[in-house]
Write a structure and sequence with these properties.
The chain is of the alpha+beta class and 314 residues long. It folds into two domains: 165 residues, no CATH class; 115 residues, Cyclophilin. It is 16% helix and 30% strand. It is built from four helices and 18 strands. The strands form three sheets. Strands 1, 2, 3, 4, 5, 6, 7, 8 and 9 form a nine-stranded antiparallel sheet that branches. β11 and β12 form a beta hairpin. α1 packs parallel to α4. The two termini are 23 Å apart.
């Protein structure tokens, strides 16, 4: 059991999302930074898709009611357990009654806290993820507040040794402003000038951005298409409204939409984009689907290596 003793403005339970609910119009949802969630779960011995905490906006504290094992990562943060610094992507053993303090998020947007056994809230439509617009999933379908207590599942039989740290070279390039994309379903409807504006300049993440979509500020990606008939959307799809301001669909985005889709963010780089804070810049690099698939295979290999190294340290 863990108890929130000082909650930040945004704190929810998230896992890998609802893989089979789109047919019902329910977004996949889940962690904004799926790489961090899966890596941290491996670092504490969980299955990669176990539920964890997704933390943002400011600091706070939580208390471990029993001896626990945890790890933090994704965004960079100043964090301490019983007065000792907690490094990122590292296996940490916590004694019953100790408090984890997240003093401040210093870089990035979403911090994840994975505990051995996973956060054991009820599954809804096959996932423990919180879907705030629908008020379901996670802990009572809402953000966590002071005094909320969350049960943890059974501890895994094999847990990495205290101090095991994921090698830095296996992590995404979180500080990079370059995000790779493949051509979207309406790519051919955009002319050379539109593509030049889209790939040739930097955009800035707008403050009007959230788990539904990241709005971008920058040059207009012009087109005369207006609104098209609604068709399926997905995480990472980049829509261009009539005014030409790109919107990248994120974890809680609708399953359909009518704006033209110029490109789709490579799944490999979605964690990098997710961790770009409002005001940060981003530049899109067009790659082929084959290149995107190769990158995703390398990322899957990195996750497998993290799991293997963690198991070997146990």
């Amino acid at each position: 059991m863990i108890t929130i003793t000082h909650a930040p403005p945004y704190l929810t339970v998230q896992d890998a999302g609802r893989r089979h609910a789109r047919v019902f119009g329910v977004p996949r949802g889940g962690a904004m930074d799926l790489f961090a969630l899966e890596a941290l779960n491996s670092i504490v011995g969980n299955a990669p898709d176990a539920a964890a905490l997704e933390w943002a906006l400011s600091g706070g504290t939580l208390k471990f009611e029993a001896d626990s094992v945890f790890a933090i990562g994704g965004a960079r943060a100043r964090a301490a357990l019983a007065g000792r610094d907690v490094p990122p992507f590292t296996t940490v053993y916590a004694a019953a009654g100790s408090e984890l303090e997240i003093e401040q998020i210093t870089e990035g947007r979403f911090l994840y806290i994975a505990c051995a056994g996973g956060v054991d809230v009820p599954a809804v439509l096959g996932s423990r993820s919180t879907y705030l617009p629908g008020h379901f999933g996670g802990f009572q379908g809402r953000t966590l507040g002071r005094g909320d207590s969350l049960p943890l599942g059974n501890r895994p039989s094999t847990i990495p040794a205290a101090g095991f740290t994921c090698p830095a070279e296996l992590l995404p390039g979180y500080t990079s402003s370059v995000v790779r994309v493949t051509a979207g379903s309406h790519a051919d409807l955009f002319d050379d000038a539109a593509w030049g504006a889209f790939t040739g300049t930097d955009f800035v993440i707008s403050h009007a951005s959230d788990r539904t979509g990241y709005k971008l500020q920058g040059p207009a990606v012009s087109h005369g298409l207006g609104t098209l008939p609604s068709d399926p959307g997905c995480q990472g799809a980049i829509q261009i409204p009539s005014e030409g301001t790109p919107i990248v669909l994120m974890a809680d985005a609708p399953t359909v939409g009518g704006y033209p889709k110029i490109a789709v963010v490579s799944k490999t780089d979605m964690p990098i984009l997710a961790q770009r804070s409002p005001g940060a810049s981003v530049r899109f690099e067009l790659i082929t689907i084959e290149q995107s698939q190769r990158a995703l295979k390398r990322r899957a290999s990195d996750q497998k290596t993290i799991r293997s190294l963690g198991a070997a340290s146990a």
